[in-house]
Amino acid sequence: MSDSTETLTVDLRDIHKQFYGVKANEGVNFQLRPGEVHALLGENGAGKSTLCSILAGLYRPDAGEMIIEGEPVVFKSPKDALAAGIGMVYQHFRLVPNLTVAENLALGHHNLGVMVDQKDLQRDATQLGERYGLPVDPTARIWQLSVGEQQRVEILKLLYRDAKVLILDEPTAVLTPQESQSLFSTMRQLTDEGRSVIFVSHKLHEVKQVSDRVSVMRQGQMVGEIDTADAEPKDLARMMVGRDLELPTRAEDDSTGQPMLVVRDLRVPGDRGLESVKGVSFEVRSGEVVGVAGVSGNGQRELAYGLVGLRRPTSGSVTLDGVDVTEENVLEHIRQGLAYIPQNRLGMGLSPGLTTEDNLGLKAFREAPYSKGRQLVPAAFKSRGKDLIEQYDIRGVVPGLPIRLLSGGNLQKALLAREVEMQPKILIARSPTRGLDVGATEAVRNSILRERSRGTGVLLMSEDLDELLALSDRLIVLYEGEIVGELTARMATAERLGLLMAGQRDEVAP
Amino acid sequence: MTVRRIIVEPRGLASLRLTLTVPLLSVLAALIIGGIFLWITGDNPLTVYGHMVDAAFGSSRGVSETLISATPLILTGLAAAIAFKMLVWNIGAEGQFLLGAIVAAGIAIAMGDGVPAVLAIPVVIMAGAIGGALWAAVSAVPRVYLGTNEIITTLMLNFIALNLMNYLIFGSNSPWRDPLVSTFPTGRPIPDGASLPRFFNRLDVGIFIAIAVAIFAWYLVNRTRWGFEVRVVGDSAETARYAGIQVPRKILGVFLISGAFAGLAGALFVAGPVGALDPRSLDLGLGFTGIIVAALARLNALAVIPVAILMGALNNAGPSLQSIGVPPEIVTMLQGAILIFAVGGEFFIANRLRRPELPPEVLAGEAAA
């Protein structure tokens, strides 16, 4: 496979791309050989997604050459890229929720006429699925499918168009460990057929496991390319970040404080009125981190909403430091010392069009120094904002500009700064490091652990098992709105959690 | 092969100079388009524009009439600006204006001549504001609690308000109708005690009230806790909920204040220059022009003042054009053109155009090719 004389499948030369004055790709070269899994590794904002989107025809490069199978090409749209055999599965799926799997496969396919035979489509979809180990029900509508199944449909869509190059942008971010393994075997099968896969990730162990070669990007540039067999995870990490990394360490501390958050038989409705949290009971004590594991969509969002007052529980109780807040509104929860880091940073945790300073005052603006009676004190927003921006190392802030212009990592630092500044008794965080680069992830995890040692009770809801295992003292697993297992940090392994997350109840006592 | 083209990208923060220049250029562009139109129809644009400036600002009477026209526009402009800022699409300022006028005139007539001005005028003004707010509430309450579309309800209520006024004057012997005029019905005159005192030709104190309300509105939005909450809700309702802000209550409040501003405009208009509930003098589309004012002012309460004066000047200049044989509709056309250019100008405030920057070696290579 490393025969350098054969024609390269993809050869990108000196690609440049700017957004809003930010250089997302700066003279990037990238080569893909036939039949390989080529991992593209890098922190968030390193330019991986931009490079892939250029190759997939979504963006046009400001400058540079693209050579596919030896021929120079210009893609004006993803359609051109697909015609050249290149397709991409984006992080946010591009499926029509109300159409069936088969219809989604057919959508936009140039070979189809005006009339489409549903039976043919469904048969094709089933056959394709069986062949590549991507089983889906072709008659199911997209909204009925789990995230993992939707991803399979996206991959099938590309195979239905006979794509020779499949670009998978962080595909394992939404999968259980078991689902990831099955995806990896599908990837192997694709490369055995001579197709190539570009696997975008920032998870080193996955890259190590599945890829043939690794290209590492940092700050818009390609910093290296290496055969996976020769790559040490430590070296890859250094290439990615540009320095050695220290993983946050959790102080072993078995002294259990008093219960800060007590949840009893909580039931919370979902968006469609059906019950999404079905009688959940647990406690979070002062100075401990309780992790909540689970594949997304198993009631995490509703549980969080129920706990912070955004959605009224149908029954059960929530007690914060001895005060029953089940029936109270959000403001009362905040007053009782509850801090919340929602999954949706921009649009829920932060108000995108307001300035960073305004956003930093968003929880405390009702009191001094931010307001005096009914009046606002603009000077306080400015000076407090400046202090917090410095103290929490929030970069890229220009006074007067809306916060949405900050990068994901800095948004999260700002959100965390505000929540931690209120000296909470309970901190609820949902996927706090999702999509963040290694540096920002480190900063966020360290603040969470700092809160823990300050005596805050932390409820950490995450889909990142490594994160849960690294930070939690105890773990509970949510499956279809119920707690299917509770483990101490010492008992928990990724495999065991994975089985629980897939709904296999833990028979062994923790 | 190298691909180069012009890139459109969002601008972070537009400079103050730019935010001032773009609306001015929009007005200029509208004047040029209007000028071309005038030229085609055989008039000299410069003569016509000169005449308009003269009519609006060239004499003490011109200035006072311009400010009289501007007064209700400041308030209906504020009504639109404060609502739109919060993504509440109250396009019912027209109806709220009329209801303000009806209620204010009704209270003034009911009080009669016996009440001293220091009491009567505040009562009449408050009555107008409350009338406008209540008319807005008809749309606001179902919007907030049932999720109805306020664009439709406020628009429909405009027609009901207009017909209500016409009924009170033309269709019935209501207390609003002047019993002494039988040929062509009009409203009963507002008693002197409730009429706004004049101080400069026909110009009355309403202009000061309008300017004071604009300053108050700016302060409310930018310098109070309530205004901060409103800004958060307007930017992201989800974030507001998350931060413990009661979103429905804020929307309701903004909607009612918007209606009150429009109703106040109606009160000042009947208690000021018009002096009666006279449908022919009130049905001028001042509520709708307020939307143009708000858009041109980029929803800034203080900017509403100069923009309303500009629009007032145009309104005031229109009728005088007839004396030189130019149809006064040219003014309506100019107002429309200004709005279109202002909306187009928004694009350049929000975005910038640039050519992609290329590294020197690429440029060299391109030159060689």
What labels describe this entry?
heterodimer, A: 510 residues, alpha/beta, Rossmann fold, 3 domains, 6-stranded mixed beta sheet, 22 strands, globular, B: 369 residues, mainly alpha, two-stranded antiparallel ribbon, 4 strands, disordered C terminus
Sheet with the most strands: spatial strand order of chain A? 6-7-8-3-9-10
Assembly classification: heterodimer
Distance between the termini of chain B: 10 Å
Biggest interface, CB < 8 A: A-B, 50 and 34 residues
Give the count of structural domains of chain A: 3
Name of the level-1 CATH class of the largest domain in chain A: Alpha Beta
Average of the residue pLDDT scores of chain A: 87
Counting DSSP E segments of at least 2 residues, the number of strands of chain B comes to: 4
Low-confidence blocks of residues of chain B: 359-369
What is the CA-CA span between the terminal residues of chain A? 47 Å
The CATH topology label of the largest domain in chain A is Rossmann fold
Helix count, DSSP H or I runs of 4 or more residues of chain B: 15
**What is the approximate shape of chain B?**
globular
The chain-level structural class of chain A is alpha/beta
Residue windows where pLDDT falls under 50 for at least 5 positions of chain A: none
Portion of residues in beta strands of chain A equals 25-35%
Shape label of chain A: globular
Polypeptide structure, described:
The complex is a heterodimer of chains A (510) and B (369). Chain A is globular. In chain A, helix 4 (118-131) crosses helix 5 (147-160). Chain A has helices at residues 48-55, 78-83, 101-106, 118-131, 147-160, 177-192, 204-210, 233-241, 300-308, 330-335, 356-360, 378-391, 408-421, 438-454, 465-471, 494-501; strands spanning 10-19, 22-32, 37-42, 63-68, 71-72, 86-89, 165-169, 196-201, 213-218, 221-227, 259-269, 275-285, 289-293, 315-320, 323-324, 338-341, 371-372, 375-376, 426-430, 457-461, 474-479, 482-488. The mean pLDDT of chain A is 87. In chain A, strand 14 (315-320) and strand 15 (323-324) form a beta hairpin. Chain A is 31% helix and 25% strand. By secondary structure, chain B is mainly alpha-helical. Residues 359-369 of chain B have low confidence and may be disordered. Chain B is built from 15 helices and 4 strands. In chain B, helix 3 (60-85) crosses helix 12 (286-296). In chain B, the strands form 2 sheets. In chain B, strands 1-4 form a two-stranded antiparallel sheet. A two-stranded antiparallel sheet of chain B has the order 2-3. Chain B has helices spanning 16-40, 45-57, 60-85, 93-111, 117-146, 150-171, 206-223, 225-235, 237-242, 247-274, 279-282, 286-296, 304-321, 329-350, 360-368, and strands at residues 7-10, 198-200, 203-204, 351-354.
